[in-house]
Design a protein that fits this description.
The protein has about 260 residues and is of the alpha/beta class. It has ten helices and eleven strands. A six-stranded mixed beta sheet has the order 7-6-8-9-10-11, with helices on both faces. The longest helix has 15 residues. The protein is elongated and about 65 Å long.
Length: about 260
């Protein structure tokens, strides 16, 4: 865990559950600040009064359900990190929560290990990552930028039009992740990946293309490419790749699609 301890809000109408979850949170993160709310209205008031990092939100509560609270938060522009909780793993509820931007779903009873996973995921997602888009099409770069802006990860995104420009950038601010187009004039994607990797062996790279790259998988793998993304791709697919890339537990709302090929998982 990082030096910054999280500020957590537990919202559940069961005092017993709140006590159990508080205990588990403080075992995992002893320095955490923990607030409690017994219903949706108290939760909304607590979120107005405090800067909260993580919300554990019960689905079934009187008057306002967890989904009602989450929908209201999102309608007001709040991007607070929310994990829903319930005694029933209702697929419809889980889907609705995911569509409203909940990170994951915990089925009660849960373990301290599951709480630790949620806190670790929050830390990774909220740690800003410098991301570089390398594509010779300004239109495609704008589209990819918009896709990345809808991802769960905190990303500072830069863009260049080719491999040469990406290499020049490496002498200054080094990106954590590169989304690299396969077809580019001058250096193609594989050539650029090889040279980027030589400059920075630890760089994380994802190859993007509108064409089928199945014949080039071995070359991509040898170049240090972690995954292939087929254009057009979407934020949930980028989130899937980045969860794999950083070794994070996969939320139930994310799954591999035909647009995603993992090479070095």
């Amino acid at each position: 865990m990082s030096d910054k301890s999280p500020i957590v809000l537990i919202t559940d109408d069961s005092q017993t559950l709140r006590k159990i979850l508080r205990k588990a949170l403080l075992e995992v993160s002893p320095g955490a600040t923990v607030f409690e709310a017994s219903d949706g209205k108290e939760a909304l008031r607590a979120l107005r009064e405090h800067e909260v990092d993580i919300v554990f939100l019960d689905v079934n509560m009187p008057e306002m359900s967890g989904l009602d609270v989450l929908e209201l938060l999102r309608s007001k522009g709040s991007n607070v990190f929310v994990t829903l909780m319930s005694t029933e793993a209702d697929q419809a509820v889980m889907k609705a929560g995911s569509e409203l931007g909940s990170y994951d779903f915990l089925k009660k009873p849960f373990t301290s290990e599951q709480i630790a996973t949620i806190l670790s995921s929050h830390e990774s997602l909220s740690t800003r990552k410098n991301v570089l888009i390398v594509d010779d099409s300004p239109t495609i770069r704008r589209i990819i930028y918009k896709v990345l802006s809808n991802c769960r990860f905190d990303m500072l995104v830069s863009e260049v039009e080719g491999g040469k420009e990406a290499l020049e950038l490496m002498h200054g601010t080094r990106p954590d992740i590169v989304f690299l187009d396969y077809n580019m004039p001058g250096l193609d994607g594989i050539q650029a990946a090889q040279r980027l990797r030589a400059e920075n062996p630890g760089i994380k790279m994802v190859m993007i293309s509108s064409q089928d790259l199945s014949e080039h998988i071995d070359a991509c793998r040898r170049s240090g490419i972690f995954a292939l993304l087929k254009k057009p791709f979407f934020a949930n697919e980028v989130d899937f790749v980045l969860h794999r890339l950083y070794g994070l537990n996969m939320p139930q709302s994310l799954e591999q699609t035909p647009n995603v090929t993992l090479l070095n998982d």
